[in-house]
Amino acid sequence: MSVFSHYPQNFKNLILGRSTLNIADSFYAIAIMIGFVSVYHIDASELSGFALVGMLPQMMAFVYGHWFEKITDTKKWLIIFQLLHVVMVGLIIACLPFKLPIIYIYIYNFLFNLLNAILSAMHMKVVPQSLNHDPGLINKSVDIQYLASIALDILSNFLASLLLGVISYLLVLKISIPMFLSGIFFLYQLHLKPEKTTEPTEEEAVDSMSGVQHIQKNMGDFFQARTASHIVLIESFLSGATDLLTSLLPLYLVSLHVDLKWLGLVVATQRGADFFGAFLAPKIKIPPRAFFFVDYLISGTTFLLVFIVPNLFVKLLCFFICFMVIGVSGNFFEKMIYRDYEGQDMGAVFSIVMSSYSLFGILFMLIPFVYDNIQVLGVTLNALTIGFGILLARRYFKEKTTHPVSEA
Question: What is the SS3 string spanning the chain?
């Protein structure tokens, strides 16, 4: 395709490998959620706990993030972790038909998400290298990465939804295995030269650091980009509410007397909105600070309406608009990360970003253990999002009036 003509072959193979992983993940995520609810007949707190355990590896990513800086043979480790993905799915498939103790599902899902967190950080690390560290290509590549990822997620979620209407969740899980394996083919095609620090003394100094010193160094690098780090923290906090509500979607559908087989369609609608937002993002020219408060006002209002209006079609429409805006936000966010941080630090920085998002996500996931009314949670948390948007808007216009500056 002409859209890829200006990109190196390494980048093309990386996109194909990541895309295949996304498809397999989509099949796995929908099938395991339906299987978990169907087999163990869980309530809101147990479903929240399942999602919470799956988020723990990302929350702890800042602890093991410095390990990515030491990897030289990235291709080998990408393949190894992809193979381990298959092992985890196989173990879960072995558990569900026999309704083995629920603790096994928690453990295997935890390990599956640990592998996902590691692979995500390593993919982020490889992007600048696959583009020969060209800043212009890296910035433009975000549009392609985001669109490719979301487009395949949409396709896989629609397909999974259709398959779940005629076959079992267990068979959908089995179908994900060859998809995970096919991703290895594209990763094998990567030709990456080992990257080492050009200054031996600096490399020796980094290698001699303790784990705590590595964490302190990575935190310092992260907060050095003041605007970017603040946006990460704000986005992390507000995304925690969205993580909670989307994790409770199966139970919300049950409360509306909607068959669980339509969960794939709802998730596909979400990803379709993300895709449309990602498509629109390059055409939107708004300063980042202005964009994010607009994001909170619109997405908070439309997601609030999902829990207020009675009509199912209107609910789905509001759901689509909400995640369309969030899709635009994701594009802005990724470009900001690539722009404000150095390529060699990307793996460690992305680990901190994952940890931040997961920390707030986990805190929100604890809420159903003390309160589980999904309707009230939906109204309250989205009202909170709107409130943050109002506060950021007031601060933005106040600062713009008192001392206007150019925003790039």
Answer: CHHHCCCCHHHHHHHHHHHHHHHHHHHHHHHHHHHHHHHHCCCHHHHHHHHHHHHHHHHCHHHHCCHHHHCCCHHHHHHHHHHHHHHHHHHHHHHHHHCCCHHHHHHHHHHHHHHHHHHHHHHHHHHHHHCCCCHHHHHHHHHHHHHHHHHHHHHHHHHHHHHHCCCCHHHHHHHHHHHHHHHHHHHHCCCCCCCCCCCHHHHHHHHCCCHHHHHHHHHHHHHHCHHHHHHHHHHHHHHHHHHHHHHCHHHHHHHCCCCHHHHHHHHHHHHHHHHHHHHHHHHCCCCHHHHHHHHHHHHHHHHHHHCCCCCHHHHHHHHHHHHHHHHHHHHHHHHHHHHHCCHHHHHHHHHHHHHHHHHHHHHHHCHHHCCCCHHHHHHHHHHHHHHHHHHHHHHHHHHHHHCCCCCC
| Terminal alpha carbon distance of the chain | 32
Residue with tokens 């994701």: 330
CA distance linking residue 368 with residue 105, whole number of Å: 20
Closest CA to 142 of 11, 234, 23: 11
Q: Are 61 and 358 in contact (CB under 8 A)?
A: yes
**How many other C-beta atoms lie within 10 A of the C-beta of residue 224?**
12
In this predicted model, what pLDDT tens digit does every residue of 334-365 receive, in sequence order?
777 777 776 556 667 777 887 888 788 778 87
Site of tokens 């943050």: 388
- Lookup: tokens for 42: 């869980």
- pTM beyond 0.70: no
Structure tokens at 320: 């689509």
- Mean pLDDT, all residues of the chain: 78
How far apart are alpha carbons 6 and 29 in whole angstroms? 34
Crossing angle between the packed helical segments 44-59 and 102-130, to the nearest 10 degrees: 40
Distance of CA 55 to the CA centre of its chain: 11
The answer, yes or no, to whether residue 184 has pLDDT greater than 90, is no
Alpha-carbon distance 260 to 38, whole Å?
9
